[in-house]
Each structure stands twice: as C-alpha cells, then as structure tokens.
Amino acid sequence: MTPLLTLGLALLLALVLWRVWPSPVARIFRALDRRHGRLKSSRLRTGAIDWHALEGGHGEPLVLLHGFNADADHFTRVARYLSRHFRVLAPDLPGFGDTRVDGALDYRISAQADRVIEWMDAADIQRCYLGGSSMGGYIAAEVARRVPDRVRALWLLAPGGVEGVPHSPLFQEISEERHNPLIIRHLADFHRLIDYCFVHPPWIPGPLARFLASRAAGRAVDHQRAFDAIRFDSEPLERIVDGLQVPALVVWGRSDQVLNPAGAAAIAERMPSAETLLLPDTGHLPMLENPCTVAEAWTSYTERLARARLDG
Is 2 within a domain? Predict the structure, then answer.
C-alpha cells in the first residue's frame, strides 16, 4: 500500500468518524477539554445512583452543580483558572451526564438537594464552597438552606427558580406553549438552545454537538418530566434564600435570554449577605462564555471573605 493510499484511507476513516459515528470523536474532544481544565473522572455509588464526577486542583473544596440538560463538563473551562486555588468537584447530577441511576427519579429541587447532600457525605465533603449554574444554582441554594453549616459560601451563576421577575425570551416561548427549547429532540433543537444560551458561542465540534444532541434526545421524555417537577412542584428560589445567612456571590450575564437577569436583584433583596455581579455582553452560561473573568470574580470574592473572617 502506497503512502498516498494510506493517507487517503486515514482521511476517509476520519471523515466517517466525524460525520457518521460521532461518539468516539466526541469523547476525544471531551477528554482534551477535561485535561485542559485539569480535571479527571471519578465514580462513586450511593444506593441506586452510580455518580460520575470531574475533580481536580488543590485547596478548599469547591462543589459545582451544572444546569438543566447539561453535565459537569460545563465547568471544565472555568476549572482551568480555579484549580490553582480550590479542589474542584463537579458531579453529573442524576438524570444527566454520565451518572447512572437504577429506577425513576424525583426531580423536585428538594429531592435533588437531598441527593447532592448524600453524595457529599459519601465523598467525605464536610464543608465546602458550593456553586451552581441555572438549575444547579437553584439546587445549591436549597442545599445551603438545609445544611448551612456545611457551606462556606454560595456561588450562584444565573440560578433558576426566581418567579417574581418578567419572563425571559425563552420562558416567554414556553409560556405561550409554542415550544420548549430546553427539551432537545434532535440536532436542530440543540443548536437553537445554543443560540439562546450565548452571545458569543464557544466552538463546539460537530461530532460533540451530535453526540450531546443524541444523548439529550434519548432522554427527552424524562427531561420533560424533570422540567415540570422543577417548574411546577418546587419552591421558588426567593422563598428558599429568604433570610439565608450564607454568604453568596450572584453572577448573571446581562444578555441572558434563558433566565431574566433581573433575578439577581430579586435574590439580593432576600439575602442580606449576597453580592451581585452583572456581566456585559454575556449570556446564560458565563463560566463557558467568559471563564477567566468569572473565575477571577469568585477567587477575589472568597479572598475577601477569608480576610473578613481573619479581621473579625
């Protein structure tokens, strides 16, 4: 076989993998992204749940909870900047990502918070910083309400569950019963949701986009059930954080089309110790769209908390 023919066959195989069989290529891209973020996979079982998580870095534990229809890989880019200061741990929440579950799940925020606390117990995380994006921020606040002595501070990245603000463009579409962009049934839905989430979308390789869209489509029915439990059967975030004394940094993109950034002020009204940061030209997932700025804001915030404790 000539070198030219060998090269041609290799290119043909790469094209087939890229276009027809995206899963292996997608896993390569995810592995590279995790390595760049200094994170490695780990598994831990609690009862019927076989948890997958990403972890890495050194320092005080920082647990990060992803949003709806997402996974722990949403934190790989910001972890690159955080892992020098914190031991980052990001689990795939049950029903999402690579965490495996035996049986049906209760997706109410209260039930999801209980499961996170069980995972923290099993992982021997007695006290930590706790962050969350979108649905993950909603869950993180409920965890802090239940076990405030175990949470040093909250990092809420455009958290879900705020009811007392006008609908965002995405939720306006849902309220008019035109379409639920959060439920992905095919690749076009995936790209449509990306358009809602970002002002400046990060590059997502084609095989990775097809892999993520296919995985979400296979769980569409369960995700609709999860969405209904979160939206209709869970306590509003304003009630969860009302009077909560845990320090909190609330970060929101000013151009968020998924959740109204006015939610930041609604949270601050009820949490006397909360600080807010609104990022210009940023959408719903600031840790993906603007990871360096977001990481610096959080690191600076925790350093100020530490100085205040020493001075006190």
Answer: no
The domain that contains 170 carries what CATH number? 3.40.50.1820
d(CA 31, CA 43): 16
Give the domain extent around 56: 20-311
Cβ atoms within 10 A of the Cβ of 91, count?
A: 28
The answer as to whether 77 is a domain residue is yes
Structure tokens at 281: 């030209």
Structure confidence at residue 29 (pLDDT): 87
Please indicate whether residue 30 or residue 21 has the higher confidence score (pLDDT).
Answer: 30
Angstrom distance (rounded) from CA 293 to CA 290: 6
- Residue 55, pLDDT > 70, answer yes
Distance of CA 237 to the CA centre of its chain: 17
Q: Are 246 and 273 in contact (CB under 8 A)?
A: yes
CA distances in angstroms from 249 to 23, 211, 220, 246, 271, listed in the order given: 37, 33, 32, 10, 10
Q: Which residue did the predictor score with more confidence, 69 or 11?
A: 69
Helix (H) or strand (E) holding 10: helix 3-19
- Dist. CA 241–CA 267, nearest whole Å: 7
* Residue 290 belongs to a domain: yes
- The total number of structural domains that make up the chain: 1
Q: Is residue 4 part of a domain?
A: no
3-state class (DSSP) for residue 179: coil
- pLDDT of 6: 42
- Between the alpha carbon of residue 177 and those of residues 160, 172, 173, 180, the distances in Å are 20, 9, 6, 8
- Checking if the pLDDT of 22 tops 80, the result is no
